[in-house]
Amino acid sequence: MQTSVTTIERFILDQEDRYPEATGELSNLLYDIALAAKIIAAAIRRAGLVNILGKQGAQNVQGEDQQKLDVLANETIKNCLKHTGRVCVMGSEEDEDIIPVPPESAVGKYAVLFDPLDGSSNLDVNSAVGTIFSIHRRVSMEGRGTAADVLQPGCQQVSAGYVMYGSSTMLVYTTGQGAHGFTLDPTIGEFLLSHERIITPRVGKYYSVNESNFGRWDRGVQAAVRGLKGDIAEGVPPKNSRYIGSLVADFHRNLIAGGVFLYPSDSKNPDGKLRLLYEASPMAFIAEQAEGSATDGMNRILDIVPDRLHQRTPLVIGSREDVGFVADTIRRVSSSARVSGGVTSPAL
Ligand code: P6P
Question: Which residues contact ligand 1 via a Cβ below 6 A?
Answer without folding.
Answer: 118-119, 121, 210, 245-247, 250, 263, 273
